[in-house]
Amino acid sequence: MSVHFQRVAVVGLGLLGGSLARAVRERGLADEVVGSGRRAEALAAACRDGVVDETAPVEEAVRGADLVVLSTPVGAMASLLGRAAPHLSAGAVVTDVGSVKGPVVETLPGRLPTGVHFVGSHPMAGSHQRGVEHARADLFEGAPCIVTPTAEADAAAVDRVEALWRALGAHVVRRSPDAHDAEVAWASHLPHVLAYAFARALAAAPAGAAEVTGSGFRDFTRIAHSDPELWSEILCANRKAVSGPLQRAAEELAALARAIEAGDAETIERALADARESLARFAPASDDDSNARSGGFVPGNHPAPSGDPKE
Question: Which 3 state secondary structure label does DSSP give 209?
């Protein structure tokens, strides 16, 4: 299904919102792209760099838009949508890029006027870097985007949101809001918690340890560079779904710690083999598996820090 919009309003011009706006413009998916946000310098940069055609306060930005994208932190969406709602046109579609969907579907649809449709979405793409100055039109290429319609969602609106993300190069996955929160708790939120916990524990490491880090250290810790304020909000918003995975990870870590303290090589090897087998469901073996087995260092193989974007 091809998709085209007359006016796209992007509310929140950070990395995600800016990348979406830039991609929509460069791919000719809208006649007009208007941005809205809090920071005057970001709005000026977005216009200067061609990310959007113009910027305006949210009340003006959404006027006449047939697509509105909320790309602010989840906690700010309800109040912004409340300001925008009286100015939305009948038939408009509202979507978001929030990392948690439970609070979103509980609050946002009820703030919309009759004839305006909400469909949640969450592109699993981004970087630890924030701000419209880092916006990239190819940010969503090959990335999963989870679209989370409720049972009451308008079917045509769902189709248009999914078509948008496909046109931006994303691989669309449809989930219920609850399923989304449960799955990203494992796939995104728990890894961030573990990376942050390890990075915090580094305060106890010998000073010389910083001189002997390799690619494995950088791969594991890169998402701990993500924004603390934003991730605090994400983890609190999805605390119910995160608590189970976090407890399971703590149990596995405690069991492995006991085996290491006891010098029980057989139990350690079995645990590590189980881990590799479990991981195979999520990530195919890479070309560097032999290097990973030996603990070696791969020169030049240092992916840029990345994570969930709003991030």
Answer: helix
Contacts of 247 (CB under 8 A, 6+ apart): none
Tokens of 296: 């070696």
Whether the predicted model's global pTM rises above the 0.85 cut: yes
For 264, the token pair is 């029980």
Q: In what order do the strands lie in the sheet with 54-55?
A: 54-55, 30-36, 5-11, 67-70, 93-96, 117-118
Over the chain (311 residues), the average pLDDT of each successive run of 10 is: 94 95 97 95 92 96 98 94 96 97 94 96 85 92 97 96 98 97 97 97 96 95 92 96 98 98 98 94 60 34 39 34
Q: Are 37 and 11 in contact (CB under 8 A)?
A: yes
* Strand spans (E) along 97-210: 117-118, 120-123, 144-148, 171-174
- Count of CA atoms in the C-beta half-sphere (13 A) of 131: 10
Report strand pairing: 144-148 vs 120-123: antiparallel
